[in-house]
Amino acid sequence: MDYTATRDRVEDYFDRSATKVWERLTSDAPVSGIRATVRAGRDRMRRLMLDQLPQDLSGCRVLDAGCGTGAAAVELANRGADVVAIDISPALVKIGQDRAPRTLKGTIDWRSGDMFDAGLGHFDHGIAMDSMIYYTSPDVARQLAAIGPRVSGKFVFTLPPRTPLLMAMFGAGKLFPRADRSPQMVPQNGRAVEKALRRQDTQGRVTEIERIKSSFYISTALVFEGGAA
Q1: Is residue 3 pLDDT above 90, yes or no?
Q2: Exposed, middle or buried: residue 93 (CB in 10 Å: 0-12, 13-18, 19+)?
Q3: What superfamily in CATH does domain 3-225 come from?
Q4: Which of the residue ranges 10-14, 54-58, 74-78, 168-172 would you say has the lowest mean pLDDT?
Q5: 121: burial class by Cβ within 10 Å (0-12, 13-18, 19+)?
Q6: In what order do the strands lie in the sheet with 82-87?
Q7: What's the number of CA atoms in the CB half-sphere (13 Å) around residue 115?
Q8: What are the φ/ψ torsions at residue 4 (nearest 5 degrees)?
Q9: Spatial distance between the Cα atoms of 149 and 152, rounded to a whole number of angstroms
């Protein structure tokens, strides 16, 4: 599938099939053992990604690409950022809006739509937590090439690593029951994305930061820098 077809499939999954699953997973409600490992891993990954950005984001415009139910957007706004929190799923964005505190140091502009829409404008930093994991290396590279000139600082994102365990685990569909299983992830690494970027003669570099493994959650944090004009 190309980027648009995959994006539409992701929207269908999160908006029509698994809204309740992800609403519960990203809350404090009790969950099963498997989902508890996913929740713990995502919490660690969010902290790791946010640690790549300045603690004081006052006056900064930050993109939360694929914001989901908004946990990262709230933390960014509490650091003083003016956050554009966008997700392809209107249902998840609505959950984020409803959960967000009424008083924040910064602001959150909640939107639903394509997370890489050029109409969103320019940013000081950006994050994309587990929202680029369904795309091939060429698609990831194309989106980084597009967002790069519009981000003056760091763009922090995640990819699922190509490990035997992850390939077997997702091949067997063990992350979620069949009824609410997610779209197919594409395990890969920063080197593959770097190669795809070079084919497009794109400025900037991709650096792998750290891999988070929490049983059924395995993901790698990366930083893309130097793409801004």
Answers
A1: no
A2: buried
A3: Vaccinia Virus protein VP39 (3.40.50.150)
A4: 168-172
A5: exposed
A6: 107-112, 82-87, 61-65, 125-128, 155-159, 217-225, 205-214
A7: 32
A8: -65, -45
A9: 7
Place of tokens 């049983």: 215
Long-range pairs of 5-14 with CB within 8 A, sequence gap ≥ 24: 6/134, 6/135, 6/139, 6/183, 7/88, 7/114, 9/134, 9/183, 10/88, 10/89, 10/134, 10/183, 11/88, 11/89, 13/182, 13/183, 14/87, 14/88, 14/89, 14/91, 14/92
Task: Output the pLDDT for position 186.
Answer: 86
* Identity of the amino acid at 14: F
pLDDT of 11 = 82
The SS3 of residue 75 is helix
Is 22's pLDDT higher than 50?
yes
pLDDT at position 166 is: 55
Listed by start position, the domains of the chain span 3-225
Query: 150-179: per-residue pLDDT in tens?
Result: 999 999 999 999 766 555 555 555 454 444
